[in-house]
Specification:
It catalyses: glycerol + ATP = sn-glycerol 3-phosphate + ADP + H(+). By secondary structure, the chain is an alpha/beta fold. The chain is built from 17 helices and 22 strands. Adenosine-5'-diphosphate binds next to helix 11 and helix 12.
Length: 497
């Protein structure tokens, strides 16, 4: 069998399909953006049919560009934006509502109600998550409540629910397989991460019928085969993981203590804690890093909602840059004597504050403040937020020693200035690999190793190649002063002061 492995990376703003060859290099790829729907303030939806069409188009494009046929592909891996949920009709495969996206805040009142009933501890103990609208469970409950007849139909087994991976598997296999993997399940708020099973008590609280949920498999497992009519030949689906988990694998963070951080629209940092299910006392999430051969590896996760999105704000909102890549150059020209801070709480704050009501703020402006100081403040905010996550991780898990090295990926890591500032603020080395498509690579590795055409974890990890290490260079007192200023800015921004 050939070593060609296909990865579908179904992200928040675009879908990518990448065909890797036996040397794990990219043979061909396709990418397609799709519409974001904002039906009300704080609501974010995707059309599942548009997502499905983008998957079919990009897979065909990747094969065409590589000059390969589906019959030459040994396996397919799927990775996806997490938490985003679809409910569809079992008989027709048609969604009964648009997908409710991870960023969507519509279930904040339900989360508040459950918190007031004293239920957050129960959810956290079982799922490792918090009662925040970010996660899928309350979104499923919302659809069952609001779409006429949905709950009854779900109880009768006529409706199915799933994260995007699950919806795609259903469509790709022609409605034969309703499955997901343990990492995606671990983001739903109804999956018990210690017992590795859907949790009846939590399902009852949210009134979600268990029969509408997918079977949960290992990340490298048999998820069925794509219908021959789609790509000309069947392709076995052998790997599935949420995108941040796939990036953890693609960055070869297989050892406890290893950590990756992905800087796209938001930033998601995962610290591998091995078999230890570490309970956070500092409002980080406990999540399943990956599950292989029935063995669960856990992670502590810090989720930041705005990272590269702050650069988009410089470009599209303030219009002080024309392109994202100009942000670093502009920041480098900022006046070192000014202390301008941006707290980018544009959609509230994620970890470790979880303040849905906070809104963005800027501090320290003077008559001399201009585009350069705004650009520096925006890029530095990403470093400061990561620093808050790392501090919380160190407090939560003593093995997360001062020696932590951060492996980075995502669109924003192209900025050398930002990566150097990140190393300076963290006071820790930041490693940027040669392959930045780590998410797709992680999904491809799951599928390729399961198919037996790609190497096992140890050999795969040795193929991780450093492109550049950013070492901390900032004077200790300068760093301390900057961090003190940031903490003051955060304190003044929180909605509950
Ligand atoms: N050179 C750069 N400097 C700073 N930010 C950048 C640069 N290039 C891209 N970005 C930011 O990275 C983000 C895109 O990264 P990507 O990983 O594709 O995100 P996503 O998968 O969330 O869509 C955008 O928000 C963009 O503003
Ligand atoms: O699609 P991305 O890269 O923005 O990632 C989204 C995360 O999985 C949300 O938890």
């Amino acid at each position: 069998m050939s070593g060609f492995v296909l990865a579908i990376d179904q992200g928040t703003t675009s879908t990518r399909a990448i065909l890797f060859d036996g040397e794990m290099t990219i043979a061909g790829s396709g990418q397609k953006e799709f519409a974001q729907h904002y039906p009300a303030s704080g609501w974010v939806e995707h059309d599942p049919e548009e997502i499905w069409a983008s998957v079919v188009t990009t897979v065909k494009a990747a094969l065409r560009k590589a000059g390969r046929k589906a019959s030459e592909v040994a396996a397919l891996g799927i990775t996806n934006q997490r938490e985003t949920i679809v409910v569809w009709d079992r008989a027709t495969g048609k969604p009964i509502h648009n997908a409710i996206v991870w960023q969507d805040r519509r279930t904040a009142p339900l989360c508040q109600k459950l918190k007031k009933q004293g239920l957050e501890k129960t959810f956290t103990r079982k799922t490792g998550l918090l009662l925040d609208p970010y996660f899928s469970g309350t979104k499923i409950a919302w659809i069952l409540d609001k779409v006429k007849g949905a709950r009854k139909r779900a109880e009768m087994g006529e409706l199915l629910a799933g994260t995007i991976d699950s919806f795609l598997i259903w469509r790709l296999t022609g409605g034969k397989v309703h499955a997901t993997d343990a990492t995606n399940a671990s983001r739903t708020l109804v999956y018990n991460i210690r017992e590795n099973a859907w949790d009846d008590e939590l399902l009852a609280i949210l009134r979600i019928p268990a029969r509408m949920l997918p079977q949960v498999k290992d990340c490298a497992d048999d998820f069925g085969s794509t219908e021959k009519s789609l790509f000309g030949a069947e392709i076995r689906i052998l790997g599935v993981a949420g995108d941040q988990h796939a990036a953890t694998i693609g960055q070869a963070c297989f050892e406890p203590g290893m950590m990756k951080s992905t800087y796209g629209t938001g930033c998601f940092a995962l610290l591998n804690t091995g078999g230890d299910l570490v309970r956070s006392k500092n409002r980080l999430l406990t999540t399943i890093a990956y599950r292989l051969n029935g063995k669960t590896t856990y992670a502590l996760e810090g989720s930041i909602f705005i990272a590269g999105a702050a650069v988009q704000w410089l470009r599209d909102g303030l219009k002080v840059i024309g392109k994202a890549e100009q942000s670093g150059k502009l920041a480098a020209t900022a006046d070192p004597t000014q202390n301008v801070y941006l707290v980018p709480a544009f959609v509230g704050l994620g970890a470790p504050h979880w303040d849905a009501d906070a809104r963005g703020a800027i501090f320290g402006l003077t008559r001399n403040s201009g585009p350069a100081e705004f650009a520096r403040a925006a890029l530095e905010s990403v470093a400061f937020q990561t620093c808050d996550l790392l501090d919380a991780m160190r407090k939560d898990w003593k093995e997360a020693s001062a020696k932590t090295v951060l492996r980075v990926d995502g669109g924003m890591v192209a900025s050398d200035w930002t990566m150097q500032r990140l190393a300076d603020i963290l006071d820790a080395p930041v490693d940027r690999p040669t392959i930045l498509e780590t998410t797709a690579l992680g999904a491809a590795w799951l599928a390729g190793s399961q198919a037996g055409v790609w190497p096992a974890a140890g050999t795969f990890a040795k193929k991780w190649v450093l492109e550049r290490r950013f070492k901390p260079e900032m004077d200790t007192s300068v760093r301390a002063a900057k961090l003190a200023g940031w903490r003051d800015a955060i304190r003044r921004t929180l909605s509950t002061q």
